[in-house]
Amino acid sequence: MAERARRGRSRTLSGLLEYLSEIERAVLARDSMRITALLRKRTATHLPREIREELLLIARAPRESLRAPVQFLRFQHRMTQLSLAGEPLPTAQTELRLEPPSPAGTIRRNNDHHRRVAAAEADDDERSDASP
Hints:
Number of helices: 5
Number of strands: 0
Structural class: mainly alpha
Largest sheet: none
Oligomer: single chain
Strand content: under 5%
Helix content: 40-55%
């Protein structure tokens, strides 16, 4: 079962690499319509925001523009290296462990019994110790 999941993840990463290659071909051809069409695919959600913005900027730039997609190429290289190392596709978000919801009308309190004063200065403690 674990092997099957690993194959599925590697297929996903290889699918992303194929998608990145399609984008690369479109960028090299300065085919703005193709770049825009590729960025509308669901797979584009795996691209970081900076990469998508850079590709949109290139798609909207004139064909004579000499701007290079540096961030995109760096991302493509990183994904290729991850694939060669056998790593899974990075996820967009890390799952957070949250406390279960409290029942209605319940107030949550810290179990820490040591309560601190909200607006106390260090000098206040010294003054109270020095006064008779």
